[in-house]
Design goal:
Strand content of chain A: 15-25%
Largest sheet of chain A: 6 strands, parallel
CATH architecture of the largest domain in chain A: 3-Layer(aba) Sandwich
CATH topology of the largest domain in chain A: Rossmann fold
Mean pLDDT of chain A: 89
Radius of gyration of chain A: 27 Å
Helix content of chain A: 25-40%
Number of helices of chain A: 12
CATH superfamily of the largest domain in chain A: Response regulator
Oligomer: homodimer
DNA sequence: TTGTACGCGTTATCAA
DNA sequence: TTGATAACGCGTACAA
């Protein structure tokens, strides 16, 4: 009898049963601590436990749940699907949101089990079981890349799904008005700060959200007849933002205003700007996308785009839950406003900003 | 026939079957896009789809997997268990680690499905199914609070589990040498920086890891006969760290060195220190626990404790996987060294630090 | 003290 | 074109 480690197929309780010469019922009761109630002989208990360890037997969860959860409350398996390459702050927000929404009164009779599913950028088509309802009952998709979006448009997901931060006409979406955000960022830099050499800092992979911001920013610059440079970082991390800006300045690139369309990049950019002896906001005004908790603790506090009082994650999760319960048939597209939160990094008038 | 929304019990395909007057097999094939292959009549297909939407029918994943995945490769359900109150950067590292370790050659015949399970601080005892192998085959426990640790010591988890960042004798653990970290932090502040008014900044809830650091720091201060003050923040967030330090200074508290045992708190503390006109490191030297990507981009770059080349998350995940496959019976306790990464925030000699 | 038989909800196969 | 039936792996009531 090979143990689990040497065997591709998952061992079942009946194989276990054969290997030890006891019935499956006996084994089951021992492994679930029911042996006292059932009155199993102490040395049988020991034999079973020892053999379980030796074989590396692990019960099949699907079978176990099927048998056990049947008459319990109604449960759903949901997934948070995210691309592994993007720093997954989003995922955190979603996990918290699931916890919070699930505890709402209206869902008290339901149980939600959350899976995390990761995939590689633009490789969604290589995943199996994403279109059919064969892995989970519902999902929130986030951080998808253009190829992935295309895959979902060319094909059809057959279960409730909410796309977060991107708009795909066929599906439920919760997005922010990214074009508007880009436009407003440009307005802040060009009008408020009177920048003449604005620069946009972007990651090397553009999602629908990030490219929308870039576009909004560029259009506004164009309209105002001001040239706008683009710096492409080699990834999504602080270090990538730092490297990109250092290189740009070293090459003599001009800059008196920076719009970072990804938060972590802005943190690195801040450092690069200061290291070049430039002062924020006097020499370079900075604004970025993604109002997270550290913005106001940067030095100087960094202007950003927030989401007012609405929590994007909670909106997405509640939408998914309602779709799961089957009330809404129609496709929902919620566009949340993107509100600029102006701080010192774009304050060139020297006025004290109200708290 | 009530739809899913009005019914506590989960609707099954046979109820669906009765409600529409078709066999379960027919319904199943339609909902799984097998109707072409099976030659189902077009209007039957339509009827089934319509009814499915009307009823809000969602298949039972456990049953589906049981039937479908049987002869596929061997799969395990694992969980990342984390307390909801703590900002879950740890969770992120774990998710990435699972992705990475699962793709290793030695696990190519296995499939891992990752669940996220959250619970409230010190309320582990109120969770169901955490001791028996009834929800997942294995788990990584992190961010547990003292009461939770006690619960796990008083009871027995019957499946493979790895505790991350805390030491519980009965179980596999991957920890860092927190006492040593606390001691070294004290050495940096007291010896290198010659601080005479060291302060420790702690969150309001102490885990085993955080209290170990505090203890190590305090002991070292005591041994050197220097008094050390403790500031307790009201939570784990930047804002909490900021508030706590502002309040301490406002009350006339002395401070010329700060050890923050939680990273986000340090970010807020930085801001508070600067806002009081104090200069880092000249007036206040700062060091913290948790080498994350933003440390080196703070102004000035912040000293911290890192984990050298070993990735704590990956160690934990690989340990769990190996236990799942049943090779190791013995309990493993891996203590990883905590390496100080000194940057400008503790550099009082004015020397240029090597990169 | 242990084994037998059944059913959980689904899908694949075969029969009609 | 559709329905009946068996089987997936497990837990439990009941029989032995």
């Amino acid at each position: 009898m090979p143990n689990q480690k040497d065997c591709n197929k998952k061992m079942t309780i009946s194989e276990f049963s054969r290997s030890i010469g006891l019935s499956a019922a006996t084994i089951s009761s021992v492994l679930n601590n029911q042996h006292k109630k059932r009155g199993i002989a102490p040395d049988t208990v020991e034999r079973v436990k020892t053999q379980a360890r030796k074989l590396g037997y692990r019960p099949n969860m699907a079978a176990k749940k099927l048998r056990t959860h049947s008459d319990k409350l109604c449960s759903f398996d949901i997934a948070i699907v995210t691309c592994i390459e993007v720093p997954i702050q989003f995922t955190l927000g979603l996990i918290h949101a699931v916890e919070k929404i699930a505890s709402m009164e209206k869902y008290k009779n339901y149980e939600f089990s959350t899976q995390i599913v990761t995939y590689h950028a633009n490789k969604m088509s290589e995943m199996t079981g994403m279109l059919d309802e064969s892995r989970f009952n519902g999902a929130i998709m986030t951080n998808t890349m253009p190829q992935d979006d295309k895959y979902f448009m060319d094909n059809e997901i057959s279960y409730p799904v909410v796309f977060l931060g991107r708009y795909l006409p066929k599906y439920n979406c919760v997005t922010v008005d990214v074009n508007m955000a880009g436009k407003m960022a440009a307005d802040v830099l060009l009008v408020n700060c009177r920048c003449t050499n604005p620069v946009v800092l972007v990651p090397n992979m553009l999602t629908q959200a990030t490219s929308g911001r870039l576009e909004g920013f560029q259009k506004e610059c164009e309209w105002r007849n001001i040239e706008c440079k683009i710096i492409e970082a080699k990834g999504f991390l602080e270090q990538d933002g730092y490297n990109a800006v250092m290189e740009y300045i070293a090459k003599g690139g001009k800059i008196d205003g920076l719009y970072s369309i990804f938060e972590t990049l802005a943190v690195g950019a801040y450092h690069a700007i200061k290291q070049n002896g430039l002062i924020i906001p006097k020499d370079v005004a900075v604004i970025e996308t993604g109002e997270t908790s550290i913005c106001q603790f940067m030095d100087p506090p960094m202007s950003s785009f927030g989401l007012s009082e609405v929590n994007m994650y909670e909106v997405a999760v509640e939408l998914l839950f309602d779709q799961l319960l089957g009330s809404n048939e129609r496709i929902v597209n919620r566009i949340l406003p993107s509100i600029p939160v102006l701080r010192e990094s774009t304050n060139r008038t020297g006025e004290t900003l109200k708290k």
